[in-house]
Amino acid sequence: MMTTATAYNFAFFDEGSKREIRRATLKAISIPGYQVPFASREMPIARGWGTGGLQLTLSLVGKNDTMKVIDQGADESVNAVNIKKLIENTTGIGKTDETSEATIIQSRHRIPEVPLTKGQILVLQVPLPEPLRAFEASELETKKLHAEKEYSGAWLMLFEQIMKYGNMATDADHPVMVENRYVMAPSPIPRFDNPKMNHSDALILLGAGREKKVYAVPPYTRVVSLAFQDHPFEPESFEGESCKVCGANSVFMDELVEEESGETYYQCNDTSYCIERLNQAQEEGAL
Amino acid sequence: MNEFDSPILSVRHLNKQFGNGCESCRTQNPEQMLKNYCPVCGTVYACKDVSFDVYPGEVLGIVGESGSGKSTLMKCLYFDQEVTSGVAYIHTYKDGKKNLFEESGQYKRYIRNHLMGKVYQNPILGLKMDFSSIGNIAEKLISAGERHVGTMEARGIELLDHVCIPIHRSKEAPKNFSGGMQQRVQIAKALSNKPPLLLLDEVTTGLDLSVQASVLDLIKNLQRELEISIVLVSHDLGVIRMLADRTLVMLEGRVIEQGLTDQILEDPQHQYTQQLVHSLL
């Protein structure tokens, strides 16, 4: 049921557009990690604000879907809310904050803490899909490098960081090798989330609206973060820290500063995970 | 067969033209051509039927005026440009039975990364100016399959030391270096995975005389130490005389004369070579 009267087709797009995007998506799933060009549409939000992810979501959404949209771990940031509203207004489908209830999760720069399950689809918004761009400016050349599986550039960039800073200093978007074939930009998720891509139960789709590329990690695909023999890949460590609000540890946390005392503290980055834990604690306390 | 009897690199009938050619120039009738340029269709014949061998541990000089096809020949050998026709074999690659020019892009990359090194006249072509010097050397090692940072760092420092770049500048980008230093970093990079074949394209052109001397010295020493084969392109007969064992003389895309360097310089046969040698004196 539609919540608002609208002149738009179901899920904003006309059926032809959906079909074109789905076709690109199918190709992306068939060639894990390969960037498939697609005709990125003009959207009611600006390019660079999640149009790639939004187009994937809109092309896939059906009447029985439940969606969740997060922005850097938060369900209620402006960007996430606006995208949610657009999808809701043009499809009338239900939305949720709970990761386990959603069938489609569109996310900017995080993979949720609650493990994704079979049948779920994670849509990641991507600003820069080309992992070799800083090394080689020409698209024609990077396409050749991918075709010939010539990835010294990706390793060289990591080598340079080790030379400069003593370790691999990628905060986010640490490049991964997909099924031992394509090196892929996992979108700017923290290194902490990289291992979640490996052998994932859920389908992971990545969309770059401005750069007009779609790529995918199908379920149960091998995804390995690039590293050297003597400099292994290491996710961010929060050892000894726990969330100030819910007490969780071994999750990805934000470091915040208490304004009055000037002390730093940590808090879950994934807001719905944090709230869920609080609710659970309350219920258990009430029993 | 003795190893010294079989060449490391054999090139036969290498042709490179820019343009498709036309009725008028296909026969290569000298009357219809302006040097190696066809005035009718604008085709340039940069290399015409070039054949030569390079033997292990040898320095082969290629000399000729600018526009004679020397650099195009080198670009073809390093796969920077595709040949129009011709064959080349490296005797350590697939038993010397596979024409390098017909290999796939992936194999060409393998050959470049494992069997060859090249130093360009312009360091911008051979180096990543914004990456550190040691990173530039590592790039070649990474392409050849190395994945150990410690090993690459040690090798990089060893090589930079070898070409007299101070170690405290090894993490600096070549864009901060002088032309001579950039050229030496390029040489270090080209040598990093001990390629059996090194291609040097006008490496000393544009450097001042003292730097020229030190770069030439360096090349000579490295060649003796590592026993690599070098193809050396220069329009400077002084450089050729100092380094090359044998020399080819090119003119308008053709090899017009070849032989021992001493012979060519002392007793040139072709009119053009005579002129060239004469102008040196």
Explain what this protein looks like in three dimensions.
The complex is a heterodimer of chains A (287) and B (281). Chain A is of the alpha/beta class. Chain A folds into 2 domains: 15-225, Bacterial phosphonate metabolism protein PhnH (Rossmann fold), CATH 3.40.50; 238-287, no CATH class. Helix content of chain A is 29%, strand content 17%. In chain A, helix 1 (15-30) crosses helix 2 (51-60). In chain B, strand 6 (197-201), helix 8 (209-226) and strand 7 (229-234) form a beta-alpha-beta unit. The model of chain B has no long low-confidence stretch (mean pLDDT 89). Chain B has 11 helices and 9 strands. Chain B has a 6-stranded mixed sheet, with helices on both faces. A 3-stranded antiparallel sheet of chain B has the order 2-1-4, with helices on one face. In chain B, 38% of the residues lie in helices and 22% in strands.
Question: Order of helices and strands of chain A, N to C?
Answer: HEHEHEEEHHEEHEEEEEH
Order of neighbouring strands in the sheet with most strands of chain B: 5-6-7-3-8-9
Q: What does the overall shape of chain A look like?
A: globular
Number of separate helices of chain B: 11
Summarize the amount of helix of chain B as a percent range.
Answer: 25-40%
**Number of β-strand runs of chain B:** 9
Number of helices of chain A: 7
* Name of the CATH class of the largest domain in chain A: Alpha Beta
As a percent range, the share of strand residues of chain B is 15-25%
Strand composition percent of chain A: 15-25%
Shape category of chain B: globular
Q: What is CATH's topology name of chain B?
A: Rossmann fold
Taking pLDDT < 50 over at least 5 consecutive residues as the criterion, the unreliable ranges of chain A are none
Which structural category do the helix and sheet elements of chain A fall into? alpha/beta
The count of domains of chain B is: 1
